[in-house]
Amino acid sequence: MVQLGIRSVCLKASISSKSEAIQKVGDLLTESGNIEADYVESMMRREQQANTYLGNGIAIPHGQPQDRDLIHKTGIAVVQIPAGVEWNPGETVHLVVGIAAKSDEHLQILTNLTHVLDDEAAVQQLTHTDDPEAIIERLTQGAPTGADRNGKSAALAAQEVDQAVDVTIEGGAGLHARPATVFAEIAKSFEAEVQVRHGDRIANGKSLMSLLQLGVEPGSTIRILTRGRDADQALQALQTAVEDGLEEEEEAAAESAVEVPELGLETAAIAGIAAAPGMAIAPLHHYERGQLVYSDTAEHPDREAQRLREAVETAKADLTELYQTVKQRSGADKAAIFQAHREFLDDPALLEAAIAKLPPNRSAPAVWQEEIEERANSLAALSDPLLAGRAADVRDVGQRVLKLLADRVEAGAALPDHPVILIADDLTPSDTASFDPDKIQGFCTAKGGATSHTAIMARSLNIPAMVGAGDAVLDLSNGGQALLDGDRGALYPEPSETDLETARQAQQERRALQDMEWNTRYQPALTKDGHRIEVVANIGAPAEAEQAVNAGGEGVGLLRTEFLFLNRTAPPSEEEQFAAYTQMTQALNGLPLIIRTLDIGGDKAVPYLNLPKEDNPFLGVRGVRLCFEQPELFETQLRAILRAAATGYVRIMFPMIATLEDIRRAKDRVAAVRADLNAPPVEIGMMVEVPSAVFLAAEFAQEVDFFSVGTNDLTQYLLAIDRGHPVLAKQADALHPAVLRAIQQTVQAAQAHDKWVGVCGGMAGDPLGAILLAGLGVHELSMTIPNIPAVKAKLRSQSLKRLQKLAQKALKCRTAAEVRQL
């Protein structure tokens, strides 16, 4: 353990320059016998190469690695400068912590500094204390509470570390929001303390914000350090995750789906950065957010602290809902940013730092905004532009909470009800996710980059966009006609008629290619040799039934009824459910609607169900098992469904059926409720998502009218891989031969009893998966709405005979990779 003695602490120093401060701390190290005097010059040279300012008034000057032979023994020294000294422009230092390190023995000091860094009150106390022991205690023993965000000591001195490994962050983006989120989630799944060292900085491996502040660029090496009961397992899991890429997917910048020729326009363009492909022609409209109004002061700190805690919890719930919404609309990869946003708020260090600023009379919104800005500024200062761009995400999260704390929101200008190109200083991912692509034809921002999450959201919504255009765009007039070229990052204000005609022609050519699938979406999915596959939609809200039909869906193959039961304090009434189901039957106008009964378990927070915490909720009381445990809840839903069946073509489907007793019991409940209501009979089906349902498919086929294979869960249970696992999820491939053979066995059993099989998992919406499923004899494919036109077009381009041959080859493969190679 590194010792810090009173002789190595200088209080109330009067220092006029950075070099004088480094010299002073170097003299203390020399006098304590830690270094040769020449090492001070090495500290000066190091400062010219790298900024040792940590933030919040703290700097850690140290020498160059090649000069370690000038160090006699590892040690530190501290110089307190109450008046402060300018370290770099805009950076004032009050505590200079000089470090002479022969190895990693100084690690705990750096760890403790990361705690002090986010604690303004602690920095103020150390800056003005008259007691050197106060500095010694804080830097050698950590935070007064001795606890980090997980309630454990975060200090991992080198001699106390159980395990450590060096790994390289590959990929093109470094340790930015998505991979850092994955890293933190894995770390939090272990009891062991986890830290990450990058250069001279150390981060709490379970804190997303702390990891981002490391500024890890692509190709950089980090050291992962663990300590605790399961340190070995934690280190192995984290090392594997990093080597596998931390679920990082290459997010292309604004690449066009088609070759776009040069337009050759004569109008002068405002140049920016291409963010999302496409071309928009519409009037300009300046985007104005509502102004948040709040008082800076408040009389009761405890009450303000409670307000802040409640606002953070509400914002976290909102982000969970937004994640699910965007995931269904645009896919999990595009929705991942909102998972990262929630991770920001899940860091107690952020909340605790804000609460610490409340006494004696500051308000919750004031301290929250201050803390958010400090953290955003620390990210914005990073040299890597991708990591610096995450400052916008931090501010986005901050605004979400601030809206809940504000006394009132003075509304900004409402968005027009006609198509426009938005102009803004900058936009947040939350802003962009809320846009209606029919109204927002494109957008241009003064700030931002092509790798920002705002740009990613624009690409997922197919909204042409450019960013980083500079302040000149903010001077453009509202209502003026403009042309936005998202492929090249150019905005043409007031284009000439000739240029407009050229652009419109280019738009037409592009749309002709992109709309080919869309224009044939209502054509049935008939293979070239006349075999028809039904293509239907997975939906999770009443309004989506109409959207499914408009996209070419031939019905609904899976209605997730969970939307009626989540994010509320009491279960939905029979009337509320009946109204929702009826809205959908009316929108479908005779097309089939398969309603899956409630499918939740202990993994979801539903307060009114009083579900006990389960060690493995995916093998616990979920799906139909929960319905059996809550018969009143089950009966209410069945009554609403059977009443709705009188208004349209409704089928009932039960999830998590594992035994014949399960399906018989569920059918008995339907029969009882139907008799009580004197309702018409309905077709009854079951999900095939557990192995027992596959092996007993012949028996189940005698009990039900149809099967619907949930490939996501079936893959999970067959391969024994949690499909949400941060390390293993990529191995849960529905194209694995084991999954394909399970589907084939299910289809064969169904055909033997003249029953049909659908697939409602993600595999059905993948054109490659769809053609294999058709070749296996699947009758119906149910998918997310945007995938419907492409899948139908793909099936129409093939013959069933060819697909059957392809499926047979796939069944003989040994790995998912071999299947994909077909």
CATH architecture of the largest domain: Alpha-Beta Barrel
Molecular shape: globular
Oligomer: single chain
Portion of residues within helices: 40-55%
| CATH first level of the largest domain | Alpha Beta
Distance between the termini: 59 Å
Strand share of the residues?
15-25%
Structure description:
- The chain has 822 residues and is of the alpha/beta class.
- It folds into 4 domains: 1-146, Mannitol-specific EII, Chain A (3-Layer(aba) Sandwich), CATH 3.40.930.10; 271-289 and 412-518, Phosphohistidine domain (Glucose Oxidase, domain 1), CATH 3.50.30.10; 291-410, Enzyme I, Chain A, domain 2 (Orthogonal Bundle), CATH 1.10.274.10; 525-821, Phosphoenolpyruvate-binding domains (TIM Barrel).
- Helices cover 42% and strands 17% of the residues.
- The protein is built from 30 helices and 28 strands.
- The strands form 5 sheets. It has an 8-stranded mixed β-sheet.
- Helix 6 packs across helix 10 (332-345) and helix 19 (574-588) runs parallel beside helix 21.
- The longest helix is centred in the middle third of the chain and has 30 residues, at 301-330.
- The two termini are 59 Å apart.
- Residues 104-108, 142-160 and 249-260 have low confidence and may be disordered.
Brief overview:
The protein is of the alpha/beta class.
Strand-helix topology:
Elements: E1 9-10, H1 18-31, H2 39-49, E2 53-55, E3 58-59, E4 75-88, E5 91-100, H3 107-117, H4 120-128, H5 132-141, E6 163-168, H6 177-188, E7 193-198, E8 201-204, H7 208-212, E9 221-227, H8 231-243, E10 270-271, E11 273-276, E12 279-286, E13 291-293, H9 301-330, H10 332-345, H11 348-356, H12 364-380, H13 385-388, H14 391-405, E14 408-410, E15 420-424, H15 429-433, E16 440-445, H16 453-460, E17 465-467, E18 481-485, E19 490-493, H17 497-519, E20 525-526, E21 532-539, H18 543-550, E22 556-560, H19 574-588, E23 593-596, H20 624-629, H21 631-644, E24 650-654, H22 660-677, E25 683-688, H23 691-695, H24 697-700, E26 706-709, H25 711-719, H26 737-752, E27 756-759, H27 767-776, E28 780-783, H28 788-796, H29 800-811, H30 816-821
Parallel strand pairs: 1-4, 3-5, 12-15, 15-16, 16-17, 21-22, 21-28, 22-23, 23-24, 24-25, 25-26, 26-27, 27-28
Antiparallel strand pairs: 2-3, 4-5, 6-9, 7-8, 7-9, 10-19, 11-17, 12-18, 13-14, 18-19, 20-21
Helix pairs in contact: 1-2, 3-5, 6-8, 6-10, 9-10, 9-14, 10-14, 11-12, 12-14, 18-19, 19-21, 21-22, 27-28, 27-29
